[in-house]
Amino acid sequence: MSAFESILYEKDRGRARITLNRPDKLNALSLKLLTELSEAVWEADNDRDVHSIIVKGAGRAFSSGYDLAGGDGHVPASRIEDREANAYRGGASQDDDIWQMERSQRLRMALFDAHKPSIAQVHGYCLAGGTDVALLCDMVIAADDAVFGFPPARDLGALPNNLWLYNVGPQWAKRLTLTGDTVTGREAAHIGLVLKSVPADVLEAEVEGLADRLAQIDADLLAANKRIINLGLELMGARTLQRLACENDARGHLAESARGFVRKAAEKGLKSALTERDAKFGDGRARVIGPELRDERGRLKEG
């Protein structure tokens, strides 16, 4: 049923399943993938047979984040784009930077704006942009051993979407996004970042079971009950904050550390730049319950 290149789409028993399908890249989020994700969400939202949307990742991860390496092809901003005749935006100015991030954000916001409820089925890594996609879903169910975090906040910029605040409150939002440290799926459930976590071997059954229940409810009623809660979030500023997040990320891109990361990636390669950044943080983990005692290599001690 899927006519996409970077995702898979299928409809079955009252649900649409959207699978991020770049497993060789840990489902890194390219503009092409996000464009296809948006199209798939609106297809499901328009289909009277669909009551809910499941978003998951192929392979070892939900998503490792935004595709910083590129290589997934150019996506025109419009059908009439003519790059030979016209001079289009790049990323040279701050406004260009904001414009490009807003373009990407509009694609992700389909999950928030769709009338029908969505469930993120998270296993493996859910990092950086992966958390942006997951948290824009209406409910997140994770494997106990899934890994959530935003490591690029250590040196590359701020978050271009921010629903962390509305899920975990200001203190945990700051603890995790100021350091880029990660938590497990079980810990994410404990602080409210996700709805719940379950053992990895029953994750799919748990999500499908919830979709089974949603399939018993009139889709128009599902839409009404989702809408009033999301409007409540909007009244608390959630929608405006997403737009401001793009502008704030552009501010973050002006930091010397962000410029330094770009230089290192150009000189040494992206993988080397990421390794050098994260090595200073040991295992990169936060601990939700109990003290964060670490060994000489910066790894959390057990117990």
Features:
single chain, 303 residues, alpha/beta, 6-stranded mixed sheet, 3-stranded mixed sheet, 9 strands, 13% strand
Can you give a write-up of this model?
The structure is a single chain. The chain has 303 residues and is an alpha/beta fold. It is 44% helix and 13% strand. The chain is built from eleven helices and nine strands. It has helices at 31-46, 94-108, 110-113, 129-136, 164-179, 185-191, 203-214, 219-235, 238-252, 256-268, 270-279, and strands at 7-12, 15-20, 52-57, 118-122, 125-127, 139-143, 147-149, 183-184, 196-198. The strands form two sheets. The chain has a six-stranded mixed β-sheet with strand order 1-2-3-4-6-9, with helices on both faces. It has a three-stranded mixed β-sheet with strand order 5-7-8. Helix 1 links the parallel strand 2 and strand 3. Helix 2 packs antiparallel against helix 9. The chain is globular and about 55 Å long.
